[in-house]
Amino acid sequence: MKLFILFFFILGTFNCFSQIGWQLIYSFPEDVGAICFIDNNIGFAGSGITATTKMIMRTTDAGNSWNDAASTNNAITKIYFYNYNLGFAIGEFGTLYKTTDSGANWNLVPLGETETLRGIYFYNEQMGWACIGANKIIRTTDGGNNWESSFTNGAIANYDIEFITELEGFAVGLYGGMYNSNDGGASWNQISIQLTASMFDIEFFDQSTGIVVGGIGISRTIDGGNMWSMVLNSGGTQLNSVSTFRKKFAWAAGSEKIYYSSNSGVDWIPQSFTPYSYLLQVSCVDSVNVWILGDKKLYRTATGGVTDIENQTNLYPEIFLLSQNYPNPFNPVTTISCQIPHTSFVTLKIYDILGKEIASLFNEEKPAGRYQVEFDGRGLTSGIYFYQFKAGEYTESKKMILLK
Question: How many CA atoms lie within 13 A of 351 on its CB side?
Answer without folding.
Answer: 13
